[in-house]
Specification:
Chain C: This is ABC transporter permease subunit. The complex is a heterotrimer. By secondary structure, chain A is of the alpha+beta class. Helices cover 24% and strands 36% of the residues of chain A. Chain A is built from eight helices and 21 strands. In chain A, the strands form four sheets. Chain A has a six-stranded mixed sheet, with helices on both faces. Chain A has a six-stranded antiparallel sheet with strand order 13-12-11-14-20-21. Chain A has a five-stranded antiparallel sheet with strand order 15-19-16-17-18, with no helix packed on it. The longest helix of chain A is centred in the middle third of the chain and has 18 residues, at 167-184. The longest helix of chain C is centred in the first third of the chain and has 34 residues, at 64-97. Classes of the chains: A alpha+beta, B mainly alpha, C mainly alpha. The interface between B and C is large, with 123 and 111 residues.
Chain lengths: 349, 293, 274
């Protein structure tokens, strides 16, 4: 249906504040791309620029090859779902959804048909006469979604749509929205700061930091092959150990591991599930600080002699006690220097 | 820390020393009873329960019949209605754009405009009257400036019905703007953006999204100014024509200069009746507002 | 198709026109009055006064009626504000923090005065005062102005007291403060600035109260606004009125300095039912 092409887009707020920095991104037809990043990373600003609610300081945004950057929001083929739902509280559910069609002066029977169809689609059939304040948070979110979908936008924009919902509802709506998106094959750009949401919904994830793209990749690739220490630390849990390499060996306090790269400072990254621990005969590389049992597995908090904390995932808690000395063996790991990946162990590939 | 928070008065609960609370509020409450409720009730009763020619008391609408058959009284009433209606219309026409601008604009210029719009709150109406005469009165500043560029003098609104009208609008701008801005505060940015997203142009956003949401605020602002304007005294007395006069100066003259309290109080009761709808609506909105938050 | 886009710097024409028009309509008249107050000679049709000077300040301040109006106004405003604070602040505390029967109804009873056109209400009160021989007396004016202060002096402090976080007070109790000590050391300092603003507004509003003073006080009690009315009606020397206007504006100036924060906050307007 539609391809969204973002080229060299930037956004300054006032003097010196660069919210989005010369950013490039293409969202393919029918693809769901997640913008993921901490608050202040520019993800919402980027989305709002696509929707037309912020004016870029420079760059180009095209939808199906057509430049939209000069168009006001009401003339862009985009549909936005807002974080706060932003329902019009003086209209009932039906009128909220029908408003956009009314503005386009569609015939009454067509409006009715399309609104009913979309209400069916989002699971709101029969709720047309309800006032918005009579709806639960999840239902309000569905109205907001229906309000955008009924206009059949080329691009659907979702701005942290589940932020105000509780965990349980969030998971359910996540699946529903993903289902609807795939059924309609609608090109979607989705903003979130929750990695679970991004990992479970997206075809591809864009990790943003300070207005710049850190990495664009499919969820599984992002998890297994983070391109930068930031992504490594942001997606899932990662032990990041700052240390030095000399003669092919990385070392930091009591911890060391072979690392076939040139001498110099390095960030060593290893996931808890890849950091194997074993009881030490003597002082060991680290001491156990705490053991937390999660039933299916246990997390062992470790402390290096210089105080750095690491985590290791073990199948069972009962073999480990606080204060115990252990040796560490990283099974799969990667190494970064100057914010770039310089080594990935075989097992991590 | 302001009036609005007074709201949860209904909700807060603390079961301490019941009689003490009543005792503490007794004085101001009694004062309201004695100086507001009682005079109003008394005013209605004394204008209806009147002595006849023989000095016997009975129900009589004599003073009301006089008012509604007296051409001068009726002229005053219609002048008051004319001024009130026009003031309300002008206030909405002037203040709504200012409030809309202030709702959406940011920065120093907007702060300056807001400061100006609120400024009349800090100018007592008597100073305003004086300034009005110096600027728009005969040989006032406007005449001076027109004369300097060889244009004819204006027809001064001083001592015409337009005098009090201009003054009252000026005087009522700040609270009208403040009430409208507060009303616009309930229209979230996102709900406006959502409307633009589905294709609404600026004027469609105004008509379909903003106006329906602040209709109540407009009514509150209008009610508040109507209550003030209908019986305004100072500005009409100083700036308005001697005859016909607005209800405020009319009541004052009947009471003080003609020593005719029964007729003055009748005029007051008639003013109450004309404003009762606005008064009740206004009080109801304030109560609802205070309870609601 | 991918042209580079640089938005033009937009000039806020709407804001500029509002600023210009409002400056002309709101500030300009007051500047004219201010100019008159410092003018010795200004004959039509000169645009700029022929002679600036302070001559009329000494003449105005030498008038006995001006001095007596100033003392009357200040003593009236002080007495009314003080009485209002004495009867209203404890009541405000009770409304904010104590439970008693009819609390909600009594709280909203202070709105009663707002439901009626004000001057009509004054005439109705004057009708009562006639029988009590309060017309033309100092205390008659005090009473009528006192009623006008009740709503502000109760509602704003109630909001101020309720704005004080209960947990703050509970924390003080927890570390061993007596209830009275909590009120003195925690509640009052927290609510203080807003209450001070309410007191200031009450003083200023009373100072400028014209209609009650005119209806009830005349001819015995002449406040500054009342004197100003007679200057406007009967005084051919323009500068007297201008000088008196400037003097009259001083309390408003202080209100502008100190109470603006309370007024500009949206909640002030919401108190008016917005």
């Amino acid at each position: 249906m539609a391809v969204l092409d973002i080229k060299g887009i930037s956004k300054h707020f006032g003097a010196g504040v660069l919210a989005v920095d010369n950013l490039e991104l293409t969202v393919g037809d029918g693809e769901l791309v997640c913008l993921l990043g901490p608050s202040g990373s520019g993800k919402s600003t980027l989305l709002r620029m696509v929707g037309g609610f912020e004016t870029p300081s420079g760059g180009s945004i095209t939808i199906d090859g057509e430049e939209v950057i000069h168009l006001p929001p009401e003339r862009r083929p985009t549909g936005m779902v807002f974080q706060s739902h932003a329902l019009w509280t003086h209209m009932n559910v039906y009128k909220n959804i029908a408003f956009g069609l009314k503005l386009r002066r569609r015939p009454a029977d067509e409006i009715k048909r399309r609104v009913d169809a979309v209400m069916e689609l989002v699971g709101l059939a029969g709720y047309g006469e309800r006032q918005t304040h009579q709806l639960s948070g999840g239902q309000q979110q569905r109205v907001a979604l229906a309000r955008s979908l009924v206009l059949e936008p080329k691009i659907l924009l979702l701005d942290e749509p589940f932020a105000s919902l509780d965990q349980h509802l969030r998971e359910r709506l996540r699946e529903e929205v993903r289902d609807i998106q795939q059924r309609l094959g609608i090109t979607t750009l989705f903003v979130t700061h929750g990695q679970d949401e991004a990992l479970s919904m997206a075809d591809r994830i864009v990790v943003l930091r300070d207005g710049k793209v850190e990495q664009v990749a499919a969820p599984d690739v992002l998890y297994r092959e983070p391109a930068t220490p930031f992504v490594a630390g942001f997606i899932g849990t990662m032990n990041l150990i700052e240390g030095t390499v000399s003669n092919g060996t990385f070392s930091r306090a009591g911890f060391s591991s072979p690392l076939p790269v040139g001498d110099g400072p390095v960030t060593f990254a290893v996931r808890p599930e890849a950091l194997v621990i074993a009881p030490a005969a003597g002082a060991g590389a680290a001491k156990i600080h705490r053991v937390t049992d999660y039933g299916t597995h246990a997390i062992v908090d470790l402390e290096l002699p210089d105080g750095l904390r690491l985590k290791s995932m073990v199948p069972e808690a009962r073999h480990w006690t606080t204060g115990q000395a252990v040796d560490l063996a990283p099974r799969a790991f990667s190494a970064y220097r100057d914010n770039a990946l310089i080594y990935r162990s075989n097992a991590a590939r | 820390m302001t009036l609005a928070a007074a709201s949860d008065i209904v909700g807060a609960s603390n079961k301490r020393r019941r009689p003490v609370g009543l005792l503490l509020v007794a004085l101001p409450v009694l004062l309201v009873g004695w100086m507001v409720i009682y005079p109003i009730v008394a005013a209605v009763i004394t204008t209806i329960w009147r002595p006849d020619a023989n000095g016997r008391y009975g129900i009589s609408f004599g003073t009301y019949q006089f008012f509604f058959s007296d051409g001068y009284s009726l002229a005053n009433l219609s002048l008051t209605l004319w001024t009130t209606v026009l003031c309300a219309i002008f206030l909405v026409i002037i203040c709504l754009p200012i409030a809309l601008y202030l709702r959406f604009a940011k920065g120093r210029l907007a702060a300056y405009v807001q400061g100006l719009a609120i400024f009349p709150l800090f100018v007592p109406s008597i100073i305003l009257s004086y300034a009005f005469i110096r600027v728009l009165g005969p040989n006032g500043m406007v005449d001076i400036l027109l004369n300097a560029v060889h244009l004819p003098k204006i027809r001064s609104p001083y001592l015409t019905p337009w005098g009090p009208l201009i003054g009252l609008v000026w005087d009522n701008i700040p609270l009208t703007v403040l009430i409208l801005i507060a009303g616009l505060g309930s229209v979230s940015d996102a709900s406006i953006e959502a409307a633009r997203d589905v294709g609404a142009r600026s004027w469609q956003v105004l008509v379909h999204i903003i106006l329906p949401r602040i209709g109540n605020s407009i009514l509150v602002a209008v009610s508040f100014s109507v209550l003030g304007i209908f019986s305004a005294f100072t500005l009409p007395y100083v700036l308005g024509p001697a005859a016909p006069e607005m209800m405020g100066p009319f009541m004052q003259r009947t009471f003080r200069d003609l020593y005719d309290p029964p007729n003055a109080i009748t005029q007051a009761v008639i003013a109450f009746l004309f404003c009762i709808v606005f008064g009740l609506f206004y009080v109801r909105s304030v109560v609802k507002n205070q309870r609601g938050r | 198709m991918a042209e580079t886009f640089a938005p033009p710097r937009r000039i806020d024409w709407v804001g500029i026109s509002f600023a210009v028009v409002l400056t002309l309509v709101i500030i300009f008249p007051l500047i004219v009055v201010g100019t008159w107050a410092f003018t010795n000679v200004w004959r039509y049709p000169a645009i700029i006064p022929q002679e600036f000077g302070l001559r009329f300040w000494s003449q105005t301040l030498a008038r006995p009626d001006v001095w007596s109006a100033i003392t009357t106004s200040i003593s009236l405003a002080c007495v009314v504000t003080l009485l209002s604070a004495i009867i209203c602040l404890p009541a405000a505390f009770a409304f904010a923090r104590l439970e008693f029967p009819g609390r909600s109804l009594l709280f909203f009873s202070f709105l009663a005065g707002q439901a009626f056109p004000k001057f009509g209400l004054l005439v109705a009160i004057a009708g009562i005062f006639l029988g009590l021989n309060l017309i033309g007396t100092f205390w008659g004016v005090v009473l009528i102005q006192l009623v006008g202060t009740l709503l502000f002096m109760i509602w704003i402090p109630v909001a101020a007291f309720q704005g004080v976080d209960r947990r703050m007070e509970e924390a003080a109790r927890d570390v061993g403060a007596s209830p009275l000590r909590v009120f003195w050391s925690i509640t009052l300092p927290q609510a203080g600035p807003t209450i001070a603003a309410a007191v200031l507004l009450t003083f200023v509003n009373t100072f400028y109260e014209t209609e009650g003073a005119w209806l009830i006080g005349a001819p015995g009690i002449r406040t500054m606004p009342v004197l100003m009315i007679s200057f406007i009606n009967n005084q051919p020397v323009i500068q007297y009125g201008a000088v008196l206007s400037v003097i009259l504006w001083i309390p408003s100036f202080f209100a502008l300095l100190f109470a603006r924060r309370v007024i500009s906050g949206g909640s002030f307007a919401r108190g008016f039912g917005a």
